[in-house]
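ENTRY TYPE: paired fold submission
RECORD: A
CONTENT: sequence, then structure tokens
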Amino acid sequence: MIRKAVIPAAGLGTRLLPATKSQPKEMLPVGRKPVIQYVVEELAAAGIKDILIITGHKKRSIEDHFDEDPTLQNASPELCPTASSMHVQLFYVRQSVPLGLGHAVNLAKDFTGDEDFVVALGDSIIHAAKPHELLIRMMKCHRHNSAAATIALERVSHEDVGKYGIAALEDDSTEVSRIIEIVEKPQVGEAPSNCAVAARYIFSPQIYGALSRITKGYGGEYQLTDAIQLLIRDGLPVFGVMLRDDEKRLDIGGFDTYFEAFFLLALTDPELGKHMLNWVKRWLQVIERQCR
């Protein structure tokens, strides 16, 4: 069982300004909880015990959110989550300069040591009845194939391939397949497939050797995707695990996907979902009349 995970959460969130001017995008509420709480809960449910959160400028509220709060000591764990109530240990390190996801993951080297570890992006939610089951499948794949890297993938429209890392698979008709190429945010028409990286990874310590060899890539940053491509070129086993039909990655990277995520979780809320659905129906009728 993999014990450790890394949550990169140092991005500036400039595409979500002004909402992120004074708070991290990882702390934006989606439904009832901030984004990063969904991620920590997913990792805890998958059996992860130790989690390193990579923070940066103006990210102190992430630490505050998971701390014990004496003024809320009588609140339930659901209303006042802490690391201890989720049975995990949280550790923090700062990425003082935003040099990319590859640089951020490299900061975890001392934390993960010689163990395999999960990387779960702090601005992406896996929406499913049991979100942690994706990581469980990834862990089984990783162990069974003695993989250097195992990556969650989902199919996106061909118009959206330029937003993500894109992987080409040895066999794209199966749920699990070896990855033969991966590229960061390719141009539409140049992408090797429409299989996008879905914000969850498992790595062996071999990733650090690859990270030490990359140079700045897309956007002038050190790209994790470039290090994964080096593993592939070295002939090391890198596998992709497809999200199932009932699993959806919610990317809180811009207002379009943030609105979609909040809307979806509001509509599926066990207590208020039906009310929200009726509210939306009424407003759609109002808007339709106004547009006539």
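RECORD: B
CONTENT: sequence, then structure tokens
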Amino acid sequence: MSDQPLPRRAHPVRGYLYIASAAFLWGIAATLGRAAFTGRVLPKGQALRPIDPLILSQSRATLSFIVLLIALVLLRGWKRLRLPIADFRRMFVLGILGVAASNYLYYLAIQRTNVATAIILQYTAPILVLLYTVARGLQKPTMQRVATVALAVTGIALVIGIFGSGGFRLDTIGVLAALGAAFSFAFYNIGGHSILARYDRWTVLLYVIFSASLFWIVVNPPWKIVAAHYSGNQWLFLLVFSMVSVLAPFSLYFAGLQHLEPTRAIVVSCLEPVFSIVIAAVTLGEVMKPLQTVGIVLVLIAIVIVQLPDRKMHEEITLVEPIE
């Protein structure tokens, strides 16, 4: 469970399949989240009482932390999980401002708008990272990068319905939440870049979801959760959701990294918005209007282009997947 150099006999096709499978699971998780918020009928005709985005964010972080902690302790032991206090503080901040904030805002956006709007806006985080690296002088504002930002902004405008006449009801809170999730995702990438260079991603994942869990306990103490009287089916749903949205896809994603370079893995993971939108359309009937569909395609193109490596630059920010 660690990031290691590419093996001598890497299998790119296998790596692509691992990453695509992870993206597919994240797509399923987005649709499950929407179903949880709306109380839509789930498989086998079972109705699920609506779950608040805060509860979904809190439970998935806590349950994922418990399962991952047990696995890492059994495989590595307690001593290998220790961190210097300075690094723990950094991960604590990443856990709150990066993971907890991103999770809650992303699911709030799904609740208030739809899966397509929420995930496309969140996935503009690479554009925000690009703007940051250009402002810091880490990358040059080439015509290609300027065009990429313009392409993404145009796509966003189409997705949220700024252009076109009527039909699409713009939920301001939902759109702002999705954009906030993008900022949190970008912060996680920028702030965690140096930490991810020194620790394997399983350790970072463990500590950031631990920090997020502590934060949610303060915001929403356990006795409030008990008072909500969630049913056994709801708790089972929350457990399955945490596995589908965090541990299973990240296991596949990290397995893919053993066969692919990080930049290629990130580009392949851009299938996640595609899977999310298609699955939501098929299972929940969230069909997008023609202009919104064009906007989604423009944003996806911008996301792929912005993450292509630039051989002329010595420093490159390698993005990691949003913990959603």
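NOTES ON RECORD B: The chain has a mean pLDDT of 81. The chain has one domain: 12-38+47-306.
STATUS: closed
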